[in-house]
């Protein structure tokens, strides 16, 4: 058996046997407690891979290894592959206690196709639709290719097109006339407002249509904010929530 001090074998962080090669000699290194007459931290190096000390084809027995150590012919530590460098500025953090690291299942398109658990189809999509009180569809300048749809006709036609390709969920965003906007956004819970009317129209025509609504005060607020704004600029949270609750019930 070869007795090697810990600094000469760079393997402090492994447990169990560590196969290594020195020249033509194959040996295993394993952590062991201190042994009489040896440094406290030692590695036991065996010429054979079996505990019974079977001789390998090189003809070296464990006894011969002991003699080599006594003569000072201790094998050098096996080369250690350097750890790839991290980008500059990477923080030094302890390794996460993860029992599994599944990123190897995502490293290539073939692996991702084999192990993916989620598939997206048109049935999963929610189509955002913008509506207004007018009869005609009008382009939205800030969103090329998008339109504010007339709630009576354009909206119904667009929903029909979406359903034809498998999209059966929509979310409505209204454009309310400025004359109906107030600092408290009361139009938000008008049962005969633009959004409630559009919902009733669509549900009459497509009962199984899934409709989401934007519960927020900004389309109905003269301040353009999602909340009620106090004169000193502070948002009145509780009062805003009270208004939003009424809006949610009305829709």
Q: CATH superfamily assignment of the largest domain?
A: Aldolase class I
Which regions have little confidence, pLDDT < 50, spanning 5+ residues? 1-18, 28-45, 47-58
Helix content: 10-25%
Question: Which whole number gives the mean pLDDT?
Answer: 78
Strand content: 15-25%
Instruction: List SSEs in N-to-C order.
Output: EEEEHHEEEHEHEEEH
Strand order of the largest sheet: 6-7-5-8-9
Q: What oligomeric assembly is this protein in?
A: single chain
Task: Tell me the span between the first and last alpha carbons.
Answer: 82 Å
Approximate shape: elongated
Kindly name the structural category. Answer: alpha/beta
Cα-atom Rg, whole angstroms? Answer: 37 Å
CATH C-level of the largest domain? Alpha Beta
The domain count comes to 2
Largest sheet: 5 strands, mixed
Region (Disordered): 74-111
GO molecular function: porphobilinogen synthase activity; zinc ion binding
Pathway: Porphyrin-containing compound metabolism; protoporphyrin-IX biosynthesis; coproporphyrinogen-III from 5-aminolevulinate: step 1/4
Enzyme class: lyase
Description:
- This protein has 251 residues and is of the alpha/beta class.
- It folds into two domains: 2-70, no CATH class; 123-250, Aldolase class I (TIM Barrel, Alpha-Beta Barrel), CATH 3.20.20.70.
- The protein is 21% helix and 20% strand.
- The strands form three sheets. A five-stranded mixed β-sheet has the order 6-7-5-8-9, covered by helices on one side. A four-stranded antiparallel β-sheet has the order 1-4-3-2.
């Amino acid at each position: 058996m070869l007795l090697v001090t810990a600094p000469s074998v760079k393997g402090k962080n492994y447990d169990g046997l560590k196969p290594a090669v020195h020249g033509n000699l194959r040996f295993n290194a394993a952590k062991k407690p201190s042994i009489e007459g040896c440094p406290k931290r030692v590695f036991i190096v065996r010429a054979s891979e079996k505990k019974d000390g079977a001789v390998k084809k090189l003809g070296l027995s464990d006894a011969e290894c002991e003699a080599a150590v006594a003569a000072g012919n201790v094998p050098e530590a096996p080369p250690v592959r350097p750890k790839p460098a991290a980008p500059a500025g990477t923080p030094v953090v302890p390794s996460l206690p993860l029992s599994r690291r599944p990123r190897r299942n995502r490293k290539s398109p073939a692996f991702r196709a084999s192990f993916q658990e989620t598939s997206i189809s048109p049935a999963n999509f929610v189509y955002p639709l913008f509506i207004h009180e007018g009869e005609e569809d009008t382009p939205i300048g800030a969103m090329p290719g998008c339109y504010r749809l007339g709630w009576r006709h354009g909206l119904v036609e667009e929903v029909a097109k979406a359903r034809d390709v498998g999209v059966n969920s929509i979310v409505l965003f209204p454009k309310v006339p400025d004359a109906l906007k107030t600092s408290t956004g009361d139009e938000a819970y008008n049962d005969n407002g633009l959004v409630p009317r559009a919902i009733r129209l669509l549900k009459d025509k497509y009962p199984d249509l899934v409709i989401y609504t934007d519960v927020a005060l900004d389309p109905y607020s003269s301040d353009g904010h999602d909340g009620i704004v106090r004169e000193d600029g502070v948002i009145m949270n509780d009062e805003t929530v009270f208004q939003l609750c009424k809006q949610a019930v009305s829709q």
